[in-house]
Design a protein that fits this description.
Elements: H1 3-13, H2 15-30, H3 43-54, H4 62-88, H5 91-117, H6 123-133, H7 137-147, H8 151-177, E1 190-195, H9 206-210, E2 218-224, E3 227-230, E4 242-247, H10 250-257, E5 276-281, E6 304-310, E7 313-315, E8 328-333, H11 338-345, H12 357-372, E9 374-377, E10 381-384, H13 387-400, E11 402-403, E12 406-407, H14 412-471, H15 476-487, H16 490-499, H17 504-530
Antiparallel strand pairs: 1-4, 2-3, 2-4, 5-8, 6-7, 6-8, 9-10, 11-12
Helix pairs in contact: 2-3, 2-14, 3-14, 4-13, 4-14, 4-17, 5-6, 5-14, 5-15, 5-17, 6-7, 6-8, 6-14, 6-17, 7-17, 8-14, 8-15, 8-16, 12-13, 13-17, 14-15, 15-16, 15-17
């Protein structure tokens, strides 16, 4: 028995060790860059294939991989639900779905042509190759229901290339074209102090004047005489008052200040004996998911919210802004009110990494239940959405944010950890589980279907990429997410995030993946049931 066989037997006896060894080696290899090209977390899949081939006795429960995929899809849906629904009703969303649909149809056309014209290609296995090239287990299930186990052969061979080729093509396109990405500077809070002497505002209340200000500009405090005071709506403006205006756009803020009078900087900010500024973490479950208009700050605090900071971005505190775990709320209030405000908001950094496991459990249960529903389709039989149903429910819950006592959203940090860990586990399990089958199929007769799967996914990626960038002229970060959603594998999305580090790949993926999953299932069922 050689060293490789001994190592394979050792891994087979220690499945958890093999799982985390795959993750560690995969991430190490994924971080290696060759002229700007790196596989990222996608390398975990390829390491898993190698370990699975070296240790064919190694078996990992499929439930572990499904759990990882579930965490990833649920996290994506919760994070990008609002953007998904806005995207569906936008011109960009329509273009994104059209590009993905054309890519899937072109790939299906190639598969049908190969089944009719390519000697040795059987339709059941070709449908399996189509499902594997599009990494759609749900589409494979539709083919299995008609043809029995035969499509699984094409699927097992095409699945790895269905992950590898989109990563390679996106990486090559990025290295060749070097597309420019827009990275707008995140807004930050700005303030202006202005003396009141314009007759148009004298005698008017703060509330009345505030309604005439541009969006994002607010009156935060007033200095009268030698005292700072809160800018309550009923206060009437007098000559000699000094106003503290706040906003995130400097030009808009300066123009708004001109309506009141002359600039008078430093009068309010230098005197913090009565009012001061402090930031508080939102960690109270009672506040997360609520709009600012629904907050009931203790009146004795005499506090005014100046702005929110979410992740690395400052946000204007308009009435419809929804609070999330981990937000930092900037408040102007007397210093003696700070302890009470700290208790009100929670103000616990540790709590911002926690998850509402009741909301998580209920949300996942609803998603899996919707995915398990068998929907009757005329002339085609029945259709189940599987994990696409979970993603759809997560997107809806992410849009809703909160329902009664249940909070669906998670802190950004917790969401990232959950979905990245889930993705990594899923890739490792799929690689290890497919390694021995992949090697055996290739050795027997799999080269034919390997070539077919490679051609199918190449057509899918190239058509989608060209339609999105050349015809619809969508930016590359959006296009990368569309390609990831059309091909359907989270590893491709992870690679897209690496080469296009904005939030657009995630948003586009969430917008495309559910619709294209359903399209693939229906197309496979149509071809399978109407085939001669």
């Amino acid at each position: 028995m050689d060293v490789v066989d001994r190592f394979g037997l050792f891994l087979a006896s220690q499945p958890l060790l093999a799982l985390f060894l795959t993750i560690a080696v995969g991430y190490w290899l994924g971080a290696r860059s060759i002229k700007g090209f790196a596989l990222g977390s996608g390398a975990v899949l390829f390491v898993g294939l190698a370990i699975g081939a070296a240790a064919p006795q190694l078996k990992l429960p499929a439930l572990i991989g499904n759990l990882g995929l579930m965490l990833f899809l649920y996290g994506v849906g919760i994070a990008y639900g609002a953007q998904f629904l806005r995207g569906l009703t936008s011109a960009r969303g329509a273009k994104a779905n059209a590009a993905a649909l054309l890519g899937v149809l072109a790939a299906l056309g190639l598969m049908i042509a190969a089944a009719r014209l390519w000697p040795g290609v059987e339709l059941p296995k070709a449908l399996g190759a189509f499902s594997g090239a599009g990494t759609s287990t749900a589409a494979l299930q539709a083919a299995l229901a008609v043809f029995g186990p035969s499509p699984a052969t094409g699927y097992s061979v095409a699945y790895p290339v269905g992950v590898a080729i989109p990563i390679l093509l996106l990486g090559l396109y990025n290295a060749w074209r070097k597309p420019r990405l827009e990275h707008p500077a995140p807004p930050s809070l700005h303030v202006e102090e202005v003396g009141v002497d314009d007759v148009a505002v004298l005698g008017r209340t703060v509330g009345a004047v505030a309604q005439t200000l541009p969006e994002g500009v607010a009156i935060s405090a007033i200095r009268r005489g030698h005292h700072n005071m809160g800018a309550t709506p009923e206060v009437e403006l007098q000559r000699g008052d000094v106003l503290l205006l706040s906003g995130t756009d400097p030009a808009t803020l300066k123009n708004a200040a001109l309506r009141f009078g002359h600039a008078d900087p430093g009068r309010i900010l230098r005197d913090r004996s009565e009012f001061d500024y402090e930031r508080f973490f939102v960690s109270s479950p009672q506040l997360a998911g609520k709009r600012l208009s629904e907050l009931q700050l203790p009146p004795e605090c005499r506090a005014r919210i100046l702005h929110l900071r979410r992740s690395d971005v400052d946000l204007a505190p308009h009435a419809d802004r929804v609070l999330e775990f981990g937000d930092r709320v900037g408040v102007l209030a007397p210093r003696e009110s700070f302890p009470m405000l700290s208790r009100y908001f929670g103000d616990s950094v540790r709590a911002t990494g926690e998850v509402s496991y009741i909301g998580l459990g209920v949300g996942v249960t609803l998603g899996l239940a919707v995915g398990a529903i068998s929907l009757p389709l005329p002339l085609l039989g029945h259709l189940s959405l599987g994990f696409a149903g979970l993603l759809l429910v997560a997107l809806l819950l992410g849009w809703r944010r909160r329902t009664g006592p249940l909070t669906w959203v998670m802190p950004i940090s917790a969401n990232l950890v959950l979905r990245n860990f889930g993705l990594t586990v899923f890739l490792a399990v799929v690689g290890i589980s497919s390694g021995s089958t992949f090697a055996a199929t290739i050795a027997e007769s799999g080269w034919l279907y390997l070539a077919l799967g490679s051609a199918i996914v190449s057509v899918l990626v190239v058509v989608t990429l060209l339609v999105a960038t050349v015809i619809f002229r969508l930016p590359f970060d959006t296009t990368a997410g569309i390609v990831a959603g059309a091909t359907g594998n989270p590893a491709i999305l992870a690679f897209s995030n690496r080469i296009a580090p904005t939030d657009q790949p995630d948003i586009s993926y969430a917008m495309i993946f559910p619709s294209m999953t359903i399209v693939k299932i229906v197309l496979v069922q149509v071809v399978a049931m109407w085939a001669p």
